[in-house]
Amino acid sequence: MSKNPKSLILVFIQFATLGIIFATGSVLARNPLLLGLESLGICLEIWAILFMCRQSKLQVTADVAPGSHLVISGPYRYIR
User: Fold this and answer.
1) What is the mean pLDDT of the segment spanning 35-57?
2) pLDDT, tens digit, for every residue of 49-76?
3) Which of 2, 42, 68, 73 is most open to solvent, judged by the fewest CB atoms within 10 Å of its CB?
4) Is pLDDT larger for residue 25 or for residue 58?
């Protein structure tokens, strides 16, 4: 895991925000249009995670590992 304090703080903020979202209300949208957008986002997330598991080692922090390369295929050709 990274020892960079900035990366660790950002990971903490990310998980704290997710905890607040889960604790304060409905996780899924009630509006059909918003639920569709949310579903598309979840599908994109799953595709990205599966793609990255095949391409490289995953880590929680956003620090660039030595010898790493920029992935520009799969879902990452559309979204960066």
Assistant:
1) 84
2) 788 777 666 677 777 778 877 778 888 7
3) 73
4) 25
**Nearest by Cα to 45 from 79, 17, 69:** 79
Burial 2-25 (b: 16+ CB within 10 A, else e): eeeeebeeebeeeeeeeeeeeeee
Contact 59, 2 (CB under 8 A): yes
The domain locations on the chain are 5-77
